[in-house]
Write a structure and sequence with these properties.
The protein is α+β, with helices and mostly antiparallel strands and about 300 residues long. Helix content is about 30%, strand content about 20%. The strands form two sheets. The protein has a six-stranded mixed β-sheet, with no helix packed on it.
């Protein structure tokens, strides 16, 4: 009897299946169990799935596989639906009434004064800083206290303003020491309550402190009936992370005003956006990520009215 030929696997089958798996992950990542914070960490870097899909697209072309090409195209459509709007620059909504810059200046940073100068050179109305300590606070004060005569600093966070400040409050957000503040700023037109936050860092198996602080912050914002509210700072979480979803139901964050996903960390080659500005009762007319200026985070600048 003639020997039967082994059945050949369709060309590009593995490439196509991997592409479909990536697309499924983009669609249903919220169904993954968050074991030891692994799903939360995965969601932080979810936009980078686009790079994997580009590589799979090249593989599909090399293999001349129709199946793989269609699978990659379908997965890319899912990626674009999730991140395409954020990737493109947002439309201008008019001129800002006031501007805010925010940056984690990095603890024990000898370049803190230069960082403060680079932020002040942009002439914002409000400067919000995180990770202040005994090493860098004095240097920052020497730069910002003159152009910004109103300030409120507690623990590792601070706010400098051209406008008068009232009703400052320190917040530990369940951490046990102060890494957040709220203060009313006499901004043009009406007062704005500004929260400056520095949430706990996340490392493998170390995420519960950050999640607890996010939960406490969400409760504080939900109970705050201020007409105009801005929450800004280092959240140590990305907008795609399930941990921040409850806060996103209370507040909104505008897309970046320039091309790109607005990554802020690490400063030398950003791979995730950990720094945010969420608002309620305000319109964000501009949002941009600043250049590397000597910290391990890049700063952000927001125009509001």
């Amino acid at each position: 009897m003639p020997r039967s030929r082994p059945r050949r696997r369709p060309r590009g089958l593995l490439t196509g299946l991997v592409a479909l798996a990536v697309g499924a992950l983009l669609l249903w990542h919220g169904l993954l169990p968050d074991v030891a914070g692994a799903a939360s960490m995965l969601e932080t870097f979810l936009p980078w799935a686009g790079v994997a899909l580009i590589a799979l697209g090249v593989a599909a072309l090399v293999r001349f596989s129709l199946f793989a090409g269609l699978a990659v195209a379908a997965a890319m459509a899912v990626w674009w639906a999730a991140f395409g709007v954020a990737l493109l620059p947002s439309m201008s909504a008019g001129s800002p009434r006031f501007t805010v810059v925010s940056e984690n200046v990095q603890a024990q940073n000898a370049e803190a004064a230069d960082i403060a100068r680079s932020l002040a050179a942009r002439s914002p109305d409000v400067v919000a800083l995180q990770e202040l300590d005994a090493t860098n606070l004095h240097a920052v004060e020497g730069v910002l206290d003159a152009p910004y005569p109103h300030r409120y600093v507690v623990g590792t966070v601070g706010l400098w303003s051209r406008y008068p400040l009232t009703d400052g409050a320190k917040l530990d957000l369940g951490l046990g020491w102060n890494r957040a503040i709220s203060v009313d700023v006499d901004t043009p037109g009406a007062s704005t309550r500004i929260y400056v936050v520095h949430l706990a860092s996340v490392r493998p198996l170390e995420y519960t402190a950050r999640d607890r602080m996010l939960g406490e912050l969400t409760q504080a914002v939900a109970a705050d009936h201020s007409e105009r509210l801005l929450v800004v700072g280092d959240f140590n979480t990305a907008s795609t992370d399930r941990a921040i979803a409850p806060l996103q139901k209370e507040l909104t964050e505008a897309s970046n005003s320039t091309v790109g996903l607005g990554f802020t960390w690490p400063a030398s080659f950003p791979v995730a956006r950990l720094d945010h500005a969420f608002v309620r009762g305000l319109t964000t007319v501009g949002s941009s990520v600043l250049d590397d200026n000597g910290s391990d985070h890049r700063g952000i600048e927001i125009g509001l009215r």
